[in-house]
Structure formats: C-alpha cells, structure tokens
Here is the input.
Amino acid sequence: MGLSKVVFLDRDGTLNKDEGYVHKVEDFELLPGVIQGLQLLKQDYLFFIITNQSGIGKKYYTEEEFREFNNRVILELKKNDIEIENTYFCPHVVEDNCVCRKPKTKFIQEITSIYDIDLENSWMIGDHPSDILFGMNAGCKTIYLLTGHGEKHFEELDENNIKPTYIARSFMEAAHFIKDLNSPNTYKKSSK
Ligand SMILES: [Mg+2]
Ligand SMILES: [Zn+2]
Here is the structure.
C-alpha cells in the first residue's frame, strides 16, 4: 500500500460557523461550500479533524457537550458521503502548556503512528494562525481561511512570519486550490 495523503481540518470557523466557543448543537451550522469542497477532495485525501477546545479547560462547556456537538458535525458530513477518519481535540487552556494544543504536533505524531502518511503532500486547513503553524511544524502544506476568525487574525500571519501555502476566502476555494495545484493557471493566487 502506498502512502495516504491527508487533509487535516480545523473544525470551528473552518467546517462550521463559530461565533466563539461554539458548542451547542442548536448553534451547529456548516459553512458554505464545505460539503462540496470535501467531496471534491475525498477521493485523494483522508480527513482528520484537529481542534483546540480550550472552552473545556475554561469550563465554558463539558467534554460531553463537545462530543455531542462534534458528533453532529460528523453526522452531517456522513449524510453527504464524507468520512472523517478521526477527531483529535485538545481540552487544555494555553496556561496548561500541554503537549497537544496546536501548533504542537502531538496529534500528527499519533496519526502517523497508525497511518502511513505522505506529510509533504498533505494539507492543513484552518482559520487561525496557529493552524498554519501547526501544518508548517508537521511538514504539510497549509491553507489559511478568511472564514471564521481568519479576517480577525490575518495580520498576525506576517507579524509572526507564518506563511501559508495559500490564503482562501472560502472552503471551496481552498479545495479547488488543492485539487488544481497541478494546473496553477486555473486559480489565481489571492491578492492578500
Ligand atoms: Mg478555527
Ligand atoms: Zn492539550
């Protein structure tokens, strides 16, 4: 068997709408183009969700509430024939200085201990600079999304010398960029 390629996915603000610490099932809403984008990629890539959930550590919500919400995300994707291999979440707050919070790559190490993955040709997609740093630390290519909290944290990329492979305005644009990388004339680089 050859190596698998992966798209590592942040969850909140990347797949689903996030007004901040989203955790109530009734607030669940996928962002536009997520289904179509994942469908575009699913033949060539495995999907994992990797999400920082400091809301658990801050006691804004429980791990059980997190799981309930996450199951809702997985179910909605499944209904559309999209399989998430697994979800990895960090429940800690920054001050815990844990080993699993993005941009630390413990979860990637866990995944690569189970799956044979071509990291160089894998991607991390997220709406926070730490997602990009996480992907860079893991040796993946990265896409910074301007959805979710992406606009708000945009300046932090340059300030911290964090360089995404691409910056996309929507999940669909990100998916197209990955899909069409071998025909770069199809999509112009973002002007930002
Ligand atoms: Mg996010
Ligand atoms: Zn952690």
